[in-house]
Amino acid sequence: MRTSLLLLLAHVVLRSTAQPDTLWIPTQGKLVPWAVQYEAVRTDPQFTRIGRFVSDTSRVAVQLDYKRGFPSGVYRAFYPDGRPLIFAVYGWKTLYGDWTEYDEFGAVSVKGKYENGLRDGPWAFRKEGIRARYKNGLKHGKWKTIEGGRTVRVDKYRKDKLKRSQTIR
User: Fold this and answer.
1) Which residues, 6+ apart, have CB-to-CB distance to 4 below 8 Å?
2) Which of 71, 101, 113, 119 could crosslink 134 through cysteines, CB 3.0-4.6 Å?
3) Contact 52, 37 (CB under 8 A)
4) Measured torsion, CA atoms of residues 154, 1, 84, 64, in degrees rounded to the nearest 10
5) What mean pLDDT is reported for the chain?
6) Which residue from 112, 76, 111, 69 is spatially nearest to 93, judged by alpha carbons?
7) C-alpha to C-alpha distance for 156 and 144, rounded to whole angstroms
8) Arithmetic mean of pLDDT, 117-130
9) How would you write the chain as a 3-class SS string?
C-alpha cells in the first residue's frame, strides 16, 4: 500500500512547465528515487506528455495523455529498463479507472480502480496479501488478509472505521 501512495506521481505532472521530479521505483525491497524531467505542457488539443529519466534521457519514465491542457487518458510509468511500473487511467483532470502496479519481476503487485480521483471498489495488494474494498476513497467493506492461499483475517470497515475483526486460524 505504501508503494501506491508514493507512486502517485501522476498528480505532479499537472504543472505547466518542464520540471525535474521523482519517480519512486521498487528495487530489492526498497523504494529508490529516480529523477525525471518532463516536457512542457503543450497547447495542442490532444497530446502525450513524456517524462524521461534524468540519468538517461533516451529512456522514457512516464507518459500521460492530455486533452485541452489537462490529463485525460492513459498514464504509464516505467522501470529504467523499459518494463511497465504503473498503468492508470485519467478521466478529466483526475484519476478515473484502472490502476495497476507491477513489481520488479513483472508481476502485478497492486490492482484497483479510481473514481473521481479516489479509490473505489475492490483493490488487491499482493505483497501485503490483502484484498480490500474502498468507497469514495475510504476503507469500506471486508478487508481480507491472505497467507499461503487461505484467509487468516477479515476486517470489516465502514467509512474508514474498523467495525469488527476476525482472526481465522
Assistant:
1) 99, 101, 110, 125
2) 119
3) yes
4) 120
5) 89
6) 69
7) 9
8) 97
9) CHHHHHCHHHHHHHCCCCCEEEEEEEECCEEEEEEEEECCCCCCCEEEEEEEECCCCCCEEEEEEEECCEEEEEEEEECCCCCEEEEEEECCCCEEEEEEEECCCCCEEEEEEEECCEECEEEEECCCCEEEEEECCEECEEEEEEECCEEEEEEEEECCEEEEEEECC
CB-CB neighbours of 145 under 10 Å = 17
Return the bridge partners of 96, or none. none
Instruction: Give 18's pLDDT tier (boundaries 50, 70, 90).
Output: very low
Indicate whether 81 pLDDT > 90. Answer: yes
Q: Which three cell numbers stand for residue 44?
A: 495542442
**Cβ atoms of 106 and 112 closer than 8 Å:** no
* Annotated domain spans of the chain: 2-110
Q: Tell me how long the chain is.
A: 169
Q: How far apart are CA 52 and CA 83, in angstroms?
A: 14
CB burial of 105-144 (b: ≥16 within 10 Å; e: otherwise) equals eeeebbbbbbbeeebbeebbbeeebbbbbbbeeebbeebb
